[in-house]
Amino acid sequence: ATDPDPDTFERTLAADERVEPRDWMPDAYRATLVRQIAQHAHSEIIGMQPEANWITRAPSLRRKAILIAKVQDEAGHGLYLYGAAETLGVAREDLLDALHEGRQRYSSIFNYPTLTWADVGAIGWLVDGAAITNQVPLCRCSYGPYARAMVRICKEESFHQRQGYELLLALAKGTAAQRAMAQDAVDRWWWPSLMMFGPPDAESPHTRQSMAWKIKRHSNDELRQRFVDICVPQAETLGLTLPDPALRWNEERGHFDHGPIDWAEFKAVLRGAGPCNEQRIGQRRRAHAEGAWVREAAAAYARKQRDRRTA
Ligand code: 3HC
To answer: Fewer CB in 10 Å around end: N or C, the chain?
Structure first.
């Protein structure tokens, strides 16, 4: 990086311009971005597991093809994001070690099981929908490589959300058993999807600083509220109910009021006590070990190519 230049850094932020990898930046800004981008990448990679669980059991070739494309997209999102993190001077291997050793996180949402085919629809509609609500503002993040990775990721997330919604609509308009399966999935995925946005603003240690650095453009509660306001009419169109009897339009606020979120459950999942934490991280570690030969072969091939060029 160039010489310490806080004035330029502050001016760049004030002008809503982008901080680029070679610009000077405060160490804490760099550390916050490594933390958030790495954990975002880990979420994408771990997120492949609950969805992949239904690839071999998709009810039609069309649904199977869509699901395979979606899981493949998630892997790609992980790679873009590890690439963005590496522009901050960290090595992908170290980030993966941190994930495997529990020193870095992935999104709480992926610690829940996918029990029926309808879960694939609920994940697309709710989880990818929440991801879009959270990630569109990140396209305006002050750090260039992260903001640019988000632009492409958001486009692909929109397809993920659309296919999930359409899958649920097919079930909700289907037989009574299909409708019941869709309703059961929405009942199980609604509250964990609200938790994806993070703890309440009053209990968020990072929000204030992240907003000052224009990494976070809206607070956790603001985006959560935006997501609830989007989902209520969509649930009505689906003919499904959201599992919150306190949900009601508040004319004064111009938003939907909703019931209390179970933050004890959120904290338990973050502590590793969610339904699938052990399974997800165990599968991740196994996949990493089984993939060692691929990494070694790719590194050997790259060395050969380099030696040929310099021979
Ligand atoms: N799951 C796990 N950890 C969470 C969390 C969640 N849903 N929400 C918050 N946390 C953690 C934070 O990482 C932080 O812990 P740390 O200091 O050890 O990192 C702590 O709880 C306090 O939370 P804060 O709100 O203060 O932290 P942030 O300012 O980082 O805000 C965030 C949390 C809103 C998730 C923010 O990090 C963010 O916007 N990240 C980028 C988006 C992202 O990671 N999305 C993952 C969703 S899955 C996905 O996108 C895949 C798609 O295909 C569905």
So the answer is: C
